[in-house]
Amino acid sequence: MTKSKSKPKAAPRSTARKTAKPVSRRPAPASSRSAARPNTKHARIIAMLRMPTGTTIAAIMTATDWQQHSVRGFLAGVVRKKLGLNLVSEQTDKGRV
To answer: Which residues contact residue 14 at a Cβ distance below 8 angstroms, ignoring those fewer than 6 apart?
Structure first.
């Protein structure tokens, strides 16, 4: 007579959830962040963008050693969404500024 081997049943999962949520820290406002650390790549890019002549993606790439897609992601994610700044793009003889 052979016995059939069956898997042992796993213990049922507890449906109770933790009710305590971890305390999330709110990020500091953009003005205090740039004032606290003025020599970061983010601060340099913001300074380049605030110049009256503006800047190009190529100039930001050389200043930060980032690739083009990283610069575009920074502009969309950090500058536009997180900092809430308005970006304006213009075509000039130097290229898109």
So the answer is: none
